[in-house]
Amino acid sequence: MINSKEILDRVNFLVEKHQPLVASDPYRLYYHLMPSVGLLNDPNGFVYYRGEYHIFYQWNPFATAHGSKFWGHSVSTDLVHWKEAPIILAPGEWYDKNGCYSGSAVVFEDQMYVFYTGNVKDENGKRDSYQCLAVSKDGIHFEKKGPVINVPDGYTAHFRDPKVFRKNNKWYMVLGAQTDAGTGEAVYYTSNNLYDWNFHGTLAGSGKNGLGAFGYMWECPDFFELGGTDILMVCPQGIEAKGYEYQNVFQTGYFSGKINDREEIFQHGPFREMDRGFDFYAPQTTSGPNGRRLVFGWMGNAEDENSQQPTTKYEWVHALTLPRELKWKNGKLLQHPVEELKSLRGKEIKFENTRLEKHKALRFQELVFEMIVDFNSFDTDCLTIEIGESKLIYYRKEQLFTFQRKHFSKPGLMEVRHCKLKELRSIHIFKDTSSIELFLNNGEEVFTSRVFDDNNVILLHIEDGSATLNIQKWDLKRV
Ligand code: FRU
């Protein structure tokens, strides 16, 4: 067994050693959750416990690359100001020796129960996985209880990311899985005591419920009810790009429908992508104290080898998205930045009914800001908002919104993402030093992306016709 005190000492040593370098990175974010050193990926265990929000995250403190994963931990009362807490899970036991992979947390009888995937590899690289439990009486110290579920027959060791929730007076666990036939699924279990779990098989998957072949593995499922609808949020791997859709290496989206518990089926509609940007993956939700459905995503995605992010020179990489609230409206999942983010607002600039015409651009300068643009009239076929070296363009005739950013590591190259959009009514922008989150038409479509630009000019301009708009813009404070 690996001595976890020794490992944690090594982590603390690294954090301290690299702290000055990390802090000197001009792309270090002002108001997003980031690793103090190394690589962060999925949000885990998002939960409200004893008056505080807890967010955990996949963390490799030893390198700016994937590897052995720990659970980092941050705590907040307002979702905006976070205090870093000690690591709660370090790999080391026989059942998690190669990584404490993603999972979730629930509160039961005033204790926090954390479920995660123990990732194990033998000397030949052969993988095993176990769904494991750890319990805490204070939300800070956790006791590992070991595996509660082994991989069932019919599935490969790509069986992970338990999301536990309560429904119909029992506990449910949904998991991402790969069948022996090499297809992706979400499966589920139920339990009365959080220790003993009954397997119910497929919740949704390739070839089920009208869905054709749909990827070779599904990761990081979440399941919740919103506005009377059951939603399975999930990240399928192995979906081919199609038109403007499925452009990232791995996808994030949801199925909506109704679970029929007795017949053990989830009747659902088609898969819809949740985000149109470059960097969004593995979102996880929790229910806040007043029933709000809150979500964090990983502001990253699997990388291709050519696009190392510039922050790796400063010994850190990736961040979580802003916390968002989910709403269900007209058969669609909407995302809104949480209200609490208003506490970051500093100096405000406001324009009302400003008219844009060709050769009459609006210009600002700011690196970190929030901006809301509402259109009163939209009589142009091409509207552009430049933010640093990134460009947001709406083509009215084509009913197309596009986002372009500078390629991280190929000089002179731009990359682009699109979504079809019938009309553009409003854009809500959160810009941090090296990220942009765009909420279009009140959260109907969202683009989340990292950007590494060299200027901080903001320009709004049109090619023809005119547009009138209201603009509110705030400086945002560093937390
Ligand atoms: C998703 C994922 C999960 C896994 C974790 C490991 O990004 O691959 O399926 O549990 O990351 O860090």
UniProtKB/TrEMBL annotation:
- Which GO biological-process labels does this protein carry? sucrose metabolic process
List all membrane-crossing ranges. Answer: none
A GO molecular function held by the record: beta-fructofuranosidase activity
Checking Gene3D superfamilies in the record gives: Exo-inulinase, domain 1 (2.60.120.560), Glycosyl hydrolase domain, family 43 (2.115.10.20)
Q: Which InterPro entries match?
A: ConA-like_dom_sf, GH32_Enzymes, Glyco_hydro_32, Glyco_hydro_32_AS, Glyco_hydro_32_C, Glyco_hydro_32_N, Glyco_hydro_beta-prop_sf, Suc6P_hydrolase
Q: State which pathway it belongs to.
A: Glycan biosynthesis; sucrose metabolism
Q: Which reaction does it catalyse?
A: Hydrolysis of terminal non-reducing beta-D-fructofuranoside residues in beta-D-fructofuranosides
Q: Which Pfam families match?
A: Glyco_hydro_32C, Glyco_hydro_32N
Spell out the SUPFAM superfamilies in the cross-references.
Arabinanase/levansucrase/invertase, Concanavalin A-like lectins/glucanases
Q: Where in the cell is it found?
A: Cytoplasm
Gene Ontology cellular component list = cytoplasm
Q: PANTHER family from the xrefs?
A: BETA-FRUCTOSIDASE
Q: Which family does it belong to?
A: Belongs to the glycosyl hydrolase 32 family.
User: Can you name this protein?
Assistant: Sucrose-6-phosphate hydrolase
Which species is listed as the source?
Oceanobacillus zhaokaii
